[in-house]
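Notes, p. 3: input format for complexes.
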Amino acid sequence: MGAMSGCSLERSMARRGRAGAARLLAVLLIGGLAGCGAPAPPTPAPVTPTVAAPTAAAALPTPAALPAVLPPAALNTQFPPVVAPPDNPTTPQKAELGRQLFYDPVLSASNAMACATCHHPDRGFSNGAPISAPRPGAPGRNVPTLWNVATVRHLQWDGRVESLEAQAIAPLTLPSEMAATPQEIEAELRAIPAYVELFDAAFGGGPQAVTFDNVTRALAAFQRTLLSRDSRFDRFVAGDAAALTVQEQRGLALFFSPETHCAECHQPPTFAHETFRVIGVSSEDPGRAGVSPTGVRGAFRVPTLRNVARSAPYMHNGSLATLEEVVQFYAEGAGQAHGIAPVDPLLKGFDLSGQDKSDLAAFMWALTDERALPAVPEQALSGLPVTPRIVNPAR
Ligand code: HEC
Ligand code: HEC
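Output follows (395 residues plus heme C):
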């Protein structure tokens, strides 16, 4: 991977302002600067980072002693703004109501399914299953994470929904999911004084505030609080050279390397992108072509990798069980290795040792930060039990 040149450093320092620049400088002084006048190398330097990669048996140097040369792309720390629609500004009262509703199975016709049944907080807001029940117009799909969903503009794997408020309608009313009607939901919630109080606090207007629209607004406000931005990767970029282990730093270098192209689609700081790409996961799912006349068959939105270690299995159809399997899939040239063509031109495959594979997976683990996870209610306000907690041994 290419070392960061002094010139690109200056540009990014200008972007980041004085405080950011001071931190960056500290990072780079540990690592030493590459010459400013030197032209960019025509061919990429070897993928292994600036440290001689230790063999498994050799003693690892302490992270603090490592050069922490960061690829310029890694220095983009500007998250897209969290924008709520003008008629639904986020307030603590709405987010609190949304938190209660998210975990309450009273919203479903059976009184047995909540949003959290599928978007489980112990599973990175997914559910550990390959796919969920099919929705109209699409085969069953893997449950996507809700971390940082506030910054996603085209929701669902195929990008067919444009707001969190609108998105909530589908699971609440689909016969294969919570199967409720707006009338049922309103009637049940109005009969629970604790909810009437919370709706009033959030929207005003007494019992009249308990409407289906306000249910979707509160759920959206809650989801806009699920932000994950302070992983060990972020602290490393901010100048804490000890925040990543040697292995994770090797994985970082691979992730941002011109061989793997990972960071060109999964762009920091969200490690996502609002484009639809064909990587060639084998399935019957039309993806973007199913919802847009200009959509390409088999194209899906580039999903975030924040907290991705928590939400296995992977891909729109949950067909890859582990991050190591995902890395192997890309190394083999993604869909091309399975007779699916054409795939995105960035996916040409690359050489990968067993060590590289674990390094890349380790780097993705370092994108984990679940500290903003709001507390899960002990009991739902309806009196029903909340989704049982899953104890994930990987945690
Ligand atoms: C039965 C399982 C299930 C339940 C219950 C469920 N979801 Fe989902 N959710 C899914 C699946 C599957 C998708 C992906 C659908 C697709 O892409 O076609 C999804 C997608 C989403 C997305 C889009 C995320 C993204 O990154 O594009 C949001 C937001 C969401 N759900 C919120 C909710 C809320 C709020 C509730 C409760 C009202 C809820 N879900 C209940 C399975 C479920
Ligand atoms: C051409 C753009 C592109 C490149 C390059 C790319 N990805 Fe992806 N990635 C995607 C898309 C699109 C998906 C979703 C595809 C699907 O579900 O069918 C995805 C899915 C994933 C997932 C699963 C996420 C989830 O929640 O299920 C992981 C993990 C991942 N990529 C890691 C990587 C790594 C590591 C690399 C580099 C080796 C990489 N990606 C390179 C576009 C890309």
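The two ends are 31 Å apart (CA to CA).
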